[in-house]
Amino acid sequence: MGVGLILLLLLLLIGMFVFWFIGGPRIVLEEVLATRLQTPVHLQANPRFYWGKQQLQVTLQGLRIGTAAQPRLRLRRLMFSVLWRPLLAGHIKIRQIFLDQPSVYGPWPASPGSAASSANMNVSLPGDIQIRDGSLRWSGLAGHVLQLSDVQASFPRSGAGAATGRWFWNQHAGQGRLQMDIHSTSGLSLRNLQLLIGTRQVPDALSLQMPRLEIQDKVLQIPALQVRWQDNHERRMELSLQDLQAQPGLQKIALRSATLQAGSDFHMQIDHARFSWAQWTGQAGYVLSAEHLPELAKKWGLFWPKLTNPKVPRYFKMSGKLAWKNPRFDWSIRQGLLDSSPWSGNITGTWQPLKIHLALQIQRLNLGAYLPAPKAGPGAVLPKLPATWPITGSLQIGQLIWGKIRAENVLIRSRKP
């Protein structure tokens, strides 16, 4: 019996040797990962193991996720260490992860159940993460390809994390730097997050500051966020957010306030906003004001129609509430001002198909500053509407001045064709 046991152990050792020699561990791991990720997985060689006293270190060489023609991720080397004590108890607790020359390619196709699984997963760092010489290529981003290269990063489970790299997009290039304080337990907490992206001409073209970010119980919370952008043409933009909460599982976002400032001539504020991208519904209060509109449009490269006076409108403001429930929308203007003309009303309709219904009131309007006045008299011809006109409703003007035309209580209606 002793000889039989020895022969059995010998055959087992030979079998394990042959299994290892023909790449059995690599094949099994490829199949397991491919089933889990729902995409082909390739390894260059068998995994390597280092048996330490407190941890097991695993090294994967030449990892590729995706096909050879369309990879999603390539890694020259992936190393991670797992603590022995939790592993022997049936739990995997990763201590360190090292990614050597990772290359990410996107966008990734959506896999079945991916949205539900990501929505139900609490985010936390599995362990200390280090990245050396990383890169990214993401196509279809606003019609262009975003490329990151020379990415060096260190993100401890708790402590100061940082990342640097180079970027290229739409013939623009520069460097970027990210730093933060990380606290990761059952959730993820970031403190003092700062992102700085520079171009060749402007070293601080884009800066983002976030004092705190929390991901806990499937809820993302950002108490405050500030973004500043500028270019070498003296254009500046600032965005500030207050009390943002996102629930990916319910596909909802709530926001107490947001402010957008473009130079000194444009200001927009949104208050008490609620959005649901699952049902495409939402509501928000708003205040929008702009000065020197022709110059503002020219400065930002926007189209502006040719008016009688090229310097008007000099001032535009409106405030109210916007609500929508796909495909309908309801846009109320409580207070509006076009130069010196107060106006208010409602704009309702649908965007699929496009149908707009107006119910607007203007106290006094001098139209001569905007459009050439028609010749007065019985033969006066007003501008014609396009053949296909999706707008119905009414526009009531208390006092209309247009060249030699003087009129009061003017009512303009647009009916269905």
From TrEMBL:
Q: Which GO terms describe its cellular component?
A: plasma membrane
Q: What is this protein called?
A: AsmA domain-containing protein
Q: Which GO terms describe its biological process?
A: regulation of protein targeting to membrane
